[in-house]
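Notes taken during the Thursday session

The instructor put the following on the board and asked us to keep it in front of us for the whole hour. The protein is Selenoprotein O. We were told not to look anything up and to reason only from what is written here. First, the residues (625 in total):
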Amino acid sequence: MLCNFHILLSCSPATSSVTTTSAVLRRFRSPGHPSFGFFSRRVWHRVIAPPLHLCRSSEFGTVSLGPKQGEGIVKGQRKMGTSLEDLNWDQTFIRELPGDLRTDSIPRQVLHACYTRIAPSVEVDKPELVVSSESVAELLGLDKKEFERPDFPLIFSGASPLVGGLPYAQCYGGHQFGSWAGQLGDGRAITLGELVNFNGERWDLQLKGAGKTPYSRFADGLAVLRSSIREFLCSEAMNGLGIPTTRALCLVTTGKTVVRDMFYNGNSKAEPGAIVCRVAQSFLRFGSYQIHVNRVKEDVGIVRNLADYTIRHHFPHIDKMNKSDKLSSEADQEGSSLGNLSSNKYAAWSVEVAERTASLVARWQGVGFTHGVLNTDNMSVLGLTIDYGPFGFLDVFDPNYTPNTTDLPGRRYCFANQPDIGLWNVAQFATTLAAADLISKEEADYSMERYGVKFMDEYRSIMTQKLGLSKYNKELIGKLLNNLAVDKVDYTNFFRLLSNVKADPTIEEGSLLVPFKDVLLNIKDERREAWSSWIKVYISELISSGISDEARKTAMNSVNPKYILRNYLCQIAIDAAEQGDYGEVRQLFKVMEHPFDEQEGMEKYARLPPEWASRPGVCMLSCSS
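Then, after some discussion, the predicted structure tokens were revealed:
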């Protein structure tokens, strides 16, 4: 029997050491929760640390850790298009947190530290710029003409240092497929540094595939063009969809080959090497905190230091809370016993991390995105989609879909399971804070409660908007998802076509399915009856909403994308790029920047997948990259 996906009756992951996560989520599976709205833009306030002038001498040279007194950026000041040499660096992560005393890349356990200073070491031979994002350059305050510099590929391959940068690799651990994996860390990602743009926003620049670090374990610290194209495109595609994500400034080839065994079956081959420059306000993960409570007792204090740092720079509104402030402004609506809990900034932070995570996962479900590797080291504390490996967007609606071949035995990270996994991961994060004596068990449980409430509110709001309804209709949405799964209907194209349905009760029986002729393929008579029955009820709901067909269509097309980054589209671009033709990568990127627009002439990017797209390596991938 198919699961009613909208109420999350899916296979459940393991239980948390704090409480049973599935039980927590089930408490919020009944209808009636208020909607807080999905597509409203939330402003996360940011502050700049007081300008400091600190310099440190090392093998990396003498590097400024912050602007000189009086040289700080005034928030709101606008200056368009600075050069790479004029970027405003403020290295708070290095300045304020404990670091590794060693600076070599020999694999080892790094204790008592949040990072290791390490420079990129990848070998290059005439690196080339494959694709770049002007919108990300604008975020950084970088002149887009900088992409045309002859030395740009050398700088963003790591072969030439970025002036003002202070490269390091972060130390973190994580649960992988439900089991504690110990130290993981940035095994092939090296953060170049932290800059402050002209709006006072902090951004980290990170090269993925830049060479070995102490966290590389048995790996080479490199990345291939195949996976790098996927990471660049999906980072920017998710941003186009309005989903919180790390960004990508550029992608360069190294001119060298990298040996990879894509399916871990002994068939290794040489592939073109490449590096993506990832951009985020922080690359801190759940595992960044977990690692320190799973080590020697004296390292537990690092969790508090790191939490204070994170709140100070990325959740400043919490840092400024008055003691009389409540833990959550939404708490009283739920009648929780913790609704009047006096503020504990760590508890308030835990709640916000939980709610951001819930909102993120709800948005994934809305567009049919499956991350594929939801380990705790791949969960951002800022609520960003991070680490694009074997991801996949749904083609046909299949709640059990997983894009990760490694996940096939149990499908722990399948599409329908993501909400429960998100909660399980939040439970591990809350457990970490409790182990560090930052929050109580009661406060940890409350964070998970807030996850359940927030997810259901967000998901119901999303689905209501996708159908163009004025209010949530559990039965209608449940029957729709069941129909989609039974008939293996394309998820994205169906919802895009749904806006063509008219609120007209006089439509003849034989014409009800006409708007869906391109997606309801080869269905039998009994299934046609099931669909016709659903559409009649749907039309009745549309009529009762009182919204005009034109207004509803405009609203629905603003939340139901026409274009998603299907795996087969990535593969077409990859195949061309591996032959030295980057045109398809660039064109696909441009289309995915505006997924809700019709984009005349680009209709081929909205087509159903061809038969060859179902082969391994296209519809499903491994973590090998």
